Protein 1
Amino acid sequence: MPTSPPRVCPTCRTTIPPGPCPLCRREQRREGDQRRGTAAQRGYGHDWQLTRAAYLREHRLCTLCNRPATVADHHPETRRSLVARGVPDPDAWHRLRPLCKRCHDRHTGLTSPGGWNATRSR
């Protein structure tokens, strides 16, 4: 099966194999990460890590599939919306639910299509 010849990336002008330019993708990812900020800047610092660990010690199973829980998910509202509303303790246990990563990723994909960047302006 023949392959496509190399081409020149229109952005960085380097010769690349068929498909997206790996140099440009890396730069776009780096710029996006800088806009996003660190976990601590987004409100998931040391206090959150302690709260999350304690919550998952007490709530060991995913509420959706009964697998071992690895994520303390803010539910039904996101942490961002709770902070925006001025809720005094957005990380209170009654605002969390235990999920496995698979269920968390599925739920996030359904409720936030496009990831964090698509919901930035909310």
Protein 2
Amino acid sequence: MSARIEIVGRVSGRRRWTVEQKLAILRDAFGPEGCVRTACERHDVGSGAIYTWRRQAMSGELTGVRKPTEPTFAEVQISEPPALPAPAVAGRSDSSIGIELPSGIRVIVDATVDADALSRVIGVLTR
């Protein structure tokens, strides 16, 4: 007398996970008592998917809420003033600051410029 037993370990094909399921798996994998390996075994999901979901969650792509882009720094080069004197402008000091943005836009202001105003202008120009 022989009995045949068949064990199916995985469902064939691609599974679909809801955002809530993905977040629950991430909490299980990366929570206070979390372990990626244990979460993989418990939820029958590959570690590559878990790390992809973590990257998407951290960037806001998973939940649809994107983090605002953080400011980046641009190279600043200090150069000598031009050989020809600039035309005199009322209230202008002799020292000036030239800022060239990565987009090629150049901003030249005098040393008495309001830092908050300049920050807002550069913020708008870098968008």
Protein 3
Amino acid sequence: MATKWNNMPCPLCAEGTLHDDNKQKSVEYRSRHYNYEVTGAFCDHCHDGFPVHDESEETDWKAFRDQVDKNEAAELARIRKKLKLTQQEAAQITGGGHNAFSRYERGETKPVLAVFNLFRLLDHHPDLLKELREGSLST
């Protein structure tokens, strides 16, 4: 697909020329990588450019993001149950409101990454739960 920018001087750096090309890109979302290809006109000097919007790529990105969120919600529920915590106890340990874990597990709200990372650690080291309970539940 030829763009109107092909072989034009780069208006961004004023030193290079734009050329139609495809570039491989990667985006990190909640510690997971999404790889995709961008089509557009890119500068041979500054490497910046003008990507062409691709609706199907946007749809794929949203599906990836939604799947990551769904998997995290399921993993939080699995770990919480493995640790034999109620949703209220889990919320108290992480400093959330009394309904926080219920919303996390239903996918209504995304926890900050620190909450997810804490539960991943507890999944591998459940013995640390006692220390957290003593520190969090007694306050």
